[in-house]
Amino acid sequence: MIARVRALFTKKESTTESVDLNEATREVIALSLSELQRNQVMLRAELVSDLPHVTGDRVQLQQVILNLLRNASDAMSGVDDRPRQLLIRTEREGGDRVRVTVRDAGVASGLRPWTGCSMRSTRQERRHGYRVVCQPLDSREHHGRLWVEQNDGPGATFAFSIPGEPSLRRGSGNRWKAR
Length: 179
Hints:
The protein is an alpha+beta fold. About 30% of the residues lie in helices and about 30% in strands. Helix 1 crosses helix 3 (about 60-75) and helix 2 packs parallel to helix 3 (about 60-75).
């Protein structure tokens, strides 16, 4: 895990592998927990147990998740009139895609809903703490998409989805077999 954490903060060649997004998300949560506690953010994780693996660069995907968690925490830094709640969820989306959702209770008034990845954010989005760098999702390895929506109540929800691998089941020994 230490090597993976170090890789999050260093530039290295992209490595495509089978990635368990639940495990990758748990590692990012573990890395972020002390900062979230310091910022008085209550984190709830809802990770679907039968989530298919995805093919991609684990470190790049973790960087996107880390960015979304930090953005959500930053967006709630000025919130004093309600709990600073953050929800991170993994789930199946449609037939073969996997979705990661980060929902906060921050200040999102004036946030424009959008779909697609962008290396830039508008001045309005930066003013509310939402800075999204999602180049890894746009890459050839991930075929991902990212979107944001303002919540019905306070805050915003950022989500990304990428294709999952075909269903796998554990075979005898340590080999994986397609269903």
